[in-house]
Write a structure and sequence with these properties.
Length: 224
């Protein structure tokens, strides 16, 4: 099962505390950062997602930014290893405090690193069942949970065979887009995770809250 929807829709980090698992990183992500919002990129015309919380603010032009061309599973190069080493995985965070990623080696960006997710089913060495678990959680995602993602969400790409899932989540008022990816990394036998805001600097903890919600449901409902 696979489908793809095509929508045309370096600041240094001072906090380098390690995040060890999905249960503990929310508290770190909530630590106040130097909060300031960069001038948004010119918005692309885009209709609001159909599953948004309600029609309030739906008449505003969403500040969608531009979809990064670095998304997806690609060959990457570690910036910390010498000589440099390559790896396959999701895009590294760019240094802004509005991104979390488990694909990048910890030494490349300790402040934005989280551990990849384990699942009971992934221990069988296949991507199929665990990615189905993830999609079930996303399909029933509670828009507006913890006062985030009130603008709704849309699955952009789902490839069951490759164990890959890519979703856009949208903020309620201004329509900011966050890019969220999950990928079964056969080498690790775990799921790599990435959640990042397209524009701005601080995300006010939104990406952490989203991952905590998804991870919590996977643990409770599917034994991850």
């Amino acid at each position: 099962v696979a489908y793809n929807i095509n929508n045309n829709n370096n600041n240094k980090i001072s906090n380098t505390k390690t995040v060890n698992d999905r249960r503990s990183f929310l508290s770190i992500a909530a630590i106040p950062l130097a909060i300031f919002i960069a001038t948004p990129l010119a918005p692309q015309p885009s209709a609001a997602f159909d599953n948004r919380l309600d029609d309030r603010y739906a008449d505003r032009t969403p500040q969608t930014g531009v979809r990064p061309d670095t998304l997806g599973v690609k060959s990457r190069t570690s910036t910390s290893s010498k000589p440099s080493k390559g790896y396959e995985g999701l895009a590294p965070c760019d240094g802004r405090p509005n991104c979390w990623c488990s694909s990048t080696p910890f030494e490349d960006n300790p402040a934005r690193y989280i551990q990849p997710w384990d699942s009971y089913n992934s221990r069988a060495g296949t991507a199929g069942k665990p990615i189905q678990d993830l999609k079930k959680v996303i399909d029933t995602y509670e828009v507006g949970q913890k006062d985030i993602d009130g603008g709704g969400f849309q699955i952009i790409e789902y490839d069951e065979a490759k164990g890959y899932l890519y979703i856009n989540f949208q903020s309620y008022k201004n329509g900011f887009i966050d890019d969220v990816e999950f990928w079964y990394n056969g080498e690790k036998d775990k799921f790599d995770v990435r959640s990042a805001s397209r524009i701005g600097q601080s995300d006010l903890g939104v990406n952490a809250k989203r991952l905590e919600y998804i991870g919590g449901r996977l643990e409770k409902e599917f034994g991850w």
